[in-house]
Amino acid sequence: MNPIQVSLEQLRKYNQPGPRYTSYPPATHFTENFELFHTCAGVKPPLSLYFHLPFCKRQCLYCGCTNIVTSQQDRSAVYLDYLQKEIELRRPYLDADSDVVQIQLGGGTPTFLLEEELSRLGELIHSNFTVNPQVEAGAEIDPRGLTLEKVQALQQAGFNRASLGVQDTNPTVQKTISRIQPLEVVAQANQWVRDCGMTSVNFDLIYGLPAQTLDSFSQTIDDVLTLSPDRLAVYSYAHIPWIKPFQKALESKLPNTETKLQLLQLAIEKLTGAGYVYIGMDHFAKPDDAMAVALADGTLQRNFQGYSTLKGVDLHGFGMSSISHAGGRYFQSEKEIGPYYQALDDGRLPLVRGYNMTDDDKIRYAAIMHIMCNLYVDYAKISAELGVDFTDYFKADLASLEDLEKDGLLQREENGLRVTPLGRLFVRIIAMRFDAYLQAEQRAGRYSQTV
Ligand code: SF4
């Protein structure tokens, strides 16, 4: 694969605020007026399960996650009791005999859990759901404090994917963000997950962190490449001190916008130069990894965990703040642990916000997912799938693409719309043209920059 070349001018021009389209409409549209799930007779889509495990031992200063920092190890056992209650309350709304094809543990730090707690979580899942033998079961892993026993507990619970939080290997950057994690610690974690049979091992990196320079980030990329991850996610640091006040400590050392764009440019050129396929937005994968294969054969999907290789699944999130998407409806749980526990103590589902998609939402959702995931919209195919004439329904949206076509982000062909390799980087910008809600929100300045 040829390295992708991107100019700073293009990065500057398209560095605009926008949603990440893990849902449509974005979660900012969820309200307290929503209808609960209903069990539907007939079609039983496969299930994807997400478990939010919020605890962390320390606060990383760049963090934007919904987490709880605590030194009290026993809090995770209590949390598991509540997860169990939630599963029991939710079961009547789920087709428990539907195949579970995907499981994801996110956080916080899932590996905050003791090894016996990881085993207990595995038992909870397997005793309440029908897990397909081919399940893709992944866990976010903090290499710090990881033990071989924890990885073995995950393996025995059926986990076969791992995502390691790396961020940056430079000692100065690590000190500044308050996350000390020598490369040897990452190498050890990588070795353990591979020894335990985990495939599609992903590393998360972040660009735009304080004290990062082009030289230091170049070295970070060289360092992680020595460990040959199957996938890499290179996220933009999101500075949101009005939500996460501890991020203020980083303010004086943040790279300026120009340097941040150069860091991204460097990452794209180095990783594609090293043979990784650029999937889109922040994701890279080896050509033989399932994600790159799914991109090539048009089966890539997008959900709250980012890109996914599974299609047509109902997503059920468990734990505080988690989001579900099933049957054209979205639901979100209580964001704070106190109200989350209280709801379950009262025997209530902890779901407090949601959204019932309209027909227009469903059509636009499908169009946006085709653009974000397949990087190609086949007009005849999508028209048949959606039951509308695509070029007619989206006449105005398609006409608005002229400037993006001129800049080489896409090609409007006779039978379809094609995102170019350069357009993958700005795929959110293309998707935004099909978003009926966006104009008002852009005016309200609600989103982070696309880069
Ligand atoms: S370990 Fe992850 S969730 Fe916890 S503070 Fe650090 S970045 Fe945030």
Helix/strand layout:
Elements: H1 8-14, E1 47-53, E2 55-56, E3 68-69, H2 75-90, E4 99-107, H3 115-128, E5 130-141, H4 148-156, E6 161-167, H5 171-176, H6 183-195, E7 199-207, H7 214-225, E8 231-236, H8 257-273, E9 277-280, E10 283-285, H9 290-297, E11 301-303, E12 306-308, E13 314-318, E14 323-326, E15 329-333, H10 337-345, E16 351-356, H11 359-374, E17 376-378, H12 379-386, H13 390-393, H14 395-399, H15 402-406, E18 410-412, E19 416-419, H16 421-425, H17 427-432, H18 438-444
Parallel strand pairs: 1-4, 1-13, 2-3, 4-5, 5-6, 6-7, 7-8
Antiparallel strand pairs: 8-10, 9-10, 11-12, 14-15, 15-16, 17-19, 18-19
Residues 56, 59-60, 63, 65, 67, 107-109, 142, 165 line the site of iron/sulfur cluster.
Order the strands across the largest sheet as they lie in space. Answer: 9-10-8-7-6-5-4-1-13
The CATH homologous superfamily of the largest domain is termed Aldolase class I
Poorly predicted parts:
none
> What proportion of the residues is helical, as a percent range?
25-40%
User: Distance N terminus to C terminus?
Assistant: 23 Å
CATH A-level architecture of the largest domain: Alpha-Beta Barrel
If you average the pLDDT, what whole number results? Answer: 91
List the ions, cofactors and other small molecules found in this model.
Answer: iron/sulfur cluster
Top-tier CATH class of the largest domain: Alpha Beta
* Largest sheet, strands/sense/barrel: 9 strands, mixed
- Counting structural domains, the number is 2
Helix tally equals 18
The CATH topology annotation of the largest domain reads as TIM Barrel
Classify the secondary structure makeup into a structural class.
alpha/beta
Overall shape:
globular
Tell me the Rg in angstroms.
21 Å
Number of DSSP-assigned strands: 19
Strand proportion: 15-25%
